[in-house]
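dumping this here before i forget
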Amino acid sequence: MIKVLVVHDMESPAISRLAEAVAKGAGSVPDTEVMLHTTAETTVDNKIAADAIILGSPNWHGLTAKMKELIDQTGLAWEQASFVGKVGGAFTTGWSRGAGQEITLLTILHPLLAHGMIIVGLPWSSRMTRSGSYYGATAMGRPKAEDMAQGEALGRRVARYARWIARGKQGEKGEGEGGVFFKAGKRHGA
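structure:
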């Protein structure tokens, strides 16, 4: 069973709605368990237990403070290479096409890359002229049907890649050396 964790900041109803579409898409992949959490509900241990993590934040000149705080809590996990080889994705909402959604997506994806995660975005589709980005699912204002379809596509792609990777890994762990602050035996959240 593949575990996909979808985490969003509940600052706006729009991001919650898009998060539901992402979770629905991930849940459509066989043998996938989806956990849909807000930033207040999730923990670093939830993220470590997941095979894939999809983060969503409304665009507030980048990601929200709550999402940034959640990401900042993963320092020890970074040192212990806890996310190496996991699959990641991002989604966002904003109120206009030029409001900076792609910057928000890149701001979310940057720490996932720093953790050694494998990033899955969206390949070109004709609906991208109105909705979505290569970097992840987006919506302007209240999510419309095409925005929800982009969210579902992102969730489905992330879950599929996580499943494909898990099947090929056969229990093998990703390569990570840990850093100068690494302390064996230290627990996340402690």
